[in-house]
Automatic annotation (TrEMBL):
Protein name (record): HupE / UreJ protein
Bilayer-crossing regions: 12-35, 42-65, 71-88, 109-128, 148-171, 183-200
UniProt keywords, alphabetically: Membrane, Transmembrane, Transmembrane helix
Record carries keyword RNA-binding: no
UniProt-listed InterPro entries: Put_HupE_UreJ
Amino acid sequence: MSVFTTYLQLGFFHIFSLQAYDHLVFLLALCAPYVLRDWRRVVLLVTSFTLGHSLTLALATLDLVNYSPRLIETLIPITIALTSLLNLMQAGRATLRRPEPAAPAGQPLVLALPNLLAVGFGLIHGLGFSSYLRELLGPQRRPVVELFSFNVGVELGQLLIVGLILALGYGLIRGLGVARRDWLLVTSGAALGISLVLLLG
């Protein structure tokens, strides 16, 4: 098996695993306001998150930045809590009943507030990923292929998770008639609760 394939799988199964439940809960909160027809926006949102965590993952893995693992363990649930609170604040708005543009007219979609927040929160989550990757790499100092393939694996895992979340939301909203507002309230409330447990634990 090639180095690329090995680290691709490691990245995929690092995110697509119950051991990464904090990142999974963040993705749930991130995608909660959207439905299946919004999949293009969601892909862009998740890719924005990936850009953020890819940057800090590379910097930390290459020892170009120093950070406190304990601080990152605290900041990750804070990103979940803030994302969940933003969702709860918009519950009941017209956006839940009728889609509206993700960015003001004339503004690039990638500069919409949710995407900018995803990039910022991704910077924090990337530092969380880096501890695991540094353990795998050992003393290696120029792991270009490993970093790239690991990030690709994480992105593929994230897209699969997001697809499952959107499919579940579609089944409940369109199949069982669950109100979109209720879906947002329940998922965001659950994510907020988990983030508080992580913060207090």
